[in-house]
Amino acid sequence: MRSTPTPANVRSSRNNILNRDFSLGGVILLKRQNYFELKSQQMKEIILDVLERLLQMADQYTAHLEKPSDKKKAYILQVEQFVNQSEERVNDHILELLSLQPVAKDKVKELFGISRIAGLLERVGDQLINLLTISDGENAAELMPMIEQFFHYEREMMGWLIQGIEKNDRHLLELVISHDQYVNRLNKGTYQSVVHSVQEQEKITESNLKTIIMSRFLERLGDYLVTIAKIYHDFLDTRQASDE
């Protein structure tokens, strides 16, 4: 004979159900947080991989200027394709996260920042391709000293950016930001030097034009690296504020 449930039994049963539901909700929330962290780590690894490839791309570019070869040029173009594809991969990860689960406001801001970083890396690749296109000629050797001056700083900036993102190191990111002053100074000095040369020769040569254009490309490349460092630095500040 089935016993009639008492109010106490009903309350006990309801509490068990509620406790189980809260437990399941906690598991679901934990899984969502873990999935977000997993995707964030994957995107971070893509960004670091792209930065390392761009550093290799810069090295191959200067090697190509010193001793041109189809193999080096092909490698540079191949890396540029990889960079473009990586931007698409990052954005695919972001769209997946936004479509599968609710995302907190601060996390949404971070995702859009990551998307912006991927876009800026693609622009760095574009600048290197622009340099390759303009310098691919007979007077490439004349451009080498100017390019190496810029790359002296920008290689360091890329290296600090890689380490700063990998280790979440604010100091290294700040080094990237502060070194932009040297790149800007080089751009200004290059322009003034060309203007002085033109005034002495009373004519503008192809080399003069290329020097000014390439100096501008190199200065923009540095600006992109600085913007990436600033975005990631803001990530770290936001995370620290939310943890406190």
TrEMBL record:
Looking at the UniProt entry, the stretches that span the membrane are: none
Q: Which SUPFAM superfamilies match?
A: PhoU-like
Q: Which InterPro entries match?
A: PhoU, PhoU-like_sf, PhoU_dom
Could you tell me the superkingdom of the organism this chain comes from? Bacteria
One matching Pfam family is PhoU
Name a single GO biological process. negative regulation of phosphate metabolic process
Domain PhoU residue range list: 52-131, 154-231
Q: Which PANTHER family match?
A: PHOSPHATE-SPECIFIC TRANSPORT SYSTEM ACCESSORY PROTEIN PHOU
Question: What is the designated name of this protein?
Answer: Phosphate uptake regulator PhoU
